[in-house]
Amino acid sequence: MREPLYDGHGRRISDLRVSVTDRCNFRCQYCMPAEGLPWLQRDEVLSFEEIERLVRLLAEMGITDLRLTGGEPLVRREFPKLAGMLARIEGLEDISLTTNGYLLERDAAALVEAGIQRVNVSIDSLQRDRFFQMTRRDSLPQVLRGLEALGRHPEVHPIKVNAVAMRGFTEQEALPFAEFARSTAYQVRFIEFMPLDGDHNWSPDAVLTGDELRRIIHAVHPLEERPREPSATARVFRFLDGGGEIGFINPVSEPFCDDCNRIRLTAEGKLRTCLFSVGETDLREPLRSGASDSEIELIVRDAVWRKELKHRVNEPGFRQPARTMSAIGG
Ligand code: SAM
Ligand code: SF4
Asked: Residue 330 has what pLDDT?
């Protein structure tokens, strides 16, 4: 084991999000432009072995939670094999996946076999035409089949359904998703729209806050807040009549930077210490030029030490990062 990983603000870092590809089969309004983005070349993307080595090293430094994301992780060839390699790393306690669900019907069994324990499926509307409007793909039935396929594996728990909340769209989704949360075992979470979209259409006005959504739901199905767990991103409420729970991730209206324990690795091996970082640290070059684990450890520690105190989305002069959410790994 190595020394635990701390940033310069005293926060212990224990959560790593790895983007395994920048590519995606969807073009969500809040993430990618309709025409897509210039993809990384194959040799620019970290290999399975390179990802495994970095994750192992970070696990030795106290990373316990690993989330695999993208782009769309399931479009990476043999992704379940990578998940299986990572699941065997000592020290990792929790391995989860964020996916748009399109390929889940094909992959659910292999992912469970590989050791994926928790899955978030992104679904912005339960109505086919509105799902199409948001993702620019007419794929709701396919995604719901994927969700069902996953639901047949009780080893995966919880299964969360995440919807990005955008003003002028998601108001109408609040009650259908509340009903969905009440009638299924899936845990529904709304995520406030963040300035990481390829179209640069974000503005403060475009954010539909978690509080506004909560009020819409509370008026029909009264809610009561549950205690927040340390470093949790969601505020979770239970339906007072016992109909389950629903959550709100409010990074814009109620930033949760104070106890942020997360770092991110992009598909091409850049370490990012905040979603909104303007700088990043290259780990691929040292990896490929023969650096030892201890040398890479020093580079990581130095970058993490300089982790941003907080994001500045709500401050005057905020500049949207050049990378979109798909290129960072949400
Ligand atoms: N493709 C996978 C998916 O959509 O689940 C994984 C990657 S995606 C970038 C990860 C999460 O980020 C998704 O839940 C997506 O809805 C969310 N996301 C993307 N752009 C966002 C934005 N601008 N604001 C808030 N959430 C965003
Ligand atoms: Fe693809 Fe996920 Fe971005 Fe949608 S949110 S474009 S599914 S990476």
From this structure: 83
C-alpha 125 – ligand 2 centre gap (Å)? 14
Q: Is residue 7 part of a domain?
A: no
* Omega before 158 within 30 of 0, i.e. cis: yes
Query: Does 276 fall in a domain?
Result: yes
Which DSSP symbol is given to 230? Answer: T
- Residue 250 beta carbon below 6 angstroms from any ligand 2 atom: no
- Asked whether 180 lines ligand 1 (CB < 6 A), one says no
Task: Determine the distance separating the centroid of ligand 1 and the alpha carbon of 252, expressed in angstroms.
Answer: 15
* Residue 33, both tokens: 């432009």
Once rounded to an integer, what is the mean pLDDT over residues 263-282?
A: 96
**251: helix, strand or coil:** coil
Domain count of the fold of the chain: 1
- Report which ligand 2 atom has the smallest distance to the Cα of 72: 8
- CA separation for the pair 118, 174 (Å, rounded): 24
Please tell me the predicted confidence (pLDDT) of residue 19. Answer: 98
* 65 within some domain: yes
Strands of the sheet with 94-99, listed across from one edge:
223-225, 234-239, 245-249, 187-192, 159-165, 118-122, 94-99, 65-69, 15-19, 262-265, 270-272, 281-282
Q: What residue type is 55 in one-letter code? A: V
Ligand 2 pocket residue status of 98, Cβ below 6 Å: no
* Residue 230 confidence (pLDDT): 80
Contacts of 130 by beta carbon, 8 Å cutoff, 6+ apart: 124, 169, 172, 173
